[in-house]
Design brief:
15 strands, Immunoglobulin-like, 181 residues, mainly beta, elongated
Length: 181
């Protein structure tokens, strides 16, 4: 969440990026307008250590909006100020899985296919760390886009088109969105 807590109106665009130990997990922009002085982006993440950074797209940005990483239940985990073109890194820890509809983390014990979005694609793995086996990717019309066998426990799959895909690994399946960059 990015909020203008100043008494004057702030209009401008700010870049946002979120990282874990493996790299970038989310990127995008916040746009403050006359009508929206508080904006947010929802990212469903598993428990873990993350870093959030926000920086103005214009190096001459004269104001310092405050940004926060907020866990489920509106628990503030970290905050920083976007004061220059250099991003201020704000580390934070998520202790509980997210609960946001189709992106939610299910109860422990149920074997499932997990996904973590990266720029240009998705990393897939099973919840119990077992090998993925035979992996298929189908688009919404049922066309096969990917057919691969692996003994690995994790696989990066590029998803270039902005559409809904069905990803299958053995008997497990999950819907993923392509074109998220």
């Amino acid at each position: 969440m990015l909020s203008n807590l100043l008494s004057m109106e702030v209009i401008g665009t700010l870049n946002r990026a979120m990282f874990d130990a493996f790299g970038n997990v989310d990127a995008g922009q916040f746009a403050l307008t006359q009508q929206a002085q508080t904006v947010s982006a929802n990212v469903c993440l598993p428990p873990g250590e993350y870093v959030l950074s926000v920086s103005p797209t214009d190096p001459g940005f004269p104001f310092a909006p405050t940004y926060n990483a907020i866990a489920a239940g509106w628990q503030f985990t970290a905050s920083g100020s976007a004061v220059s073109s250099l991003p201020q890194a704000v580390p934070f820890t998520l202790y509980a899985p997210c609960i946001s509809g189709t992106q939610s983390v299910t109860e422990q014990g149920a074997r499932e296919l997990r996904t973590r979005y990266r720029l240009g694609g998705v990393i897939i793995e099973t919840s119990d760390g077992s090998p993925l086996g035979h992996v298929w990717l189908f688009d919404a019309q049922g066309r096969l886009h990917y057919d691969h066998r692996t003994n690995g426990e994790q696989l990066f799959m590029p998803l270039p088109a902005a559409t809904v895909y069905l990803l299958r690994a053995g008997e497990l399946s999950v819907k993923v969105l392509g074109g998220l960059e």
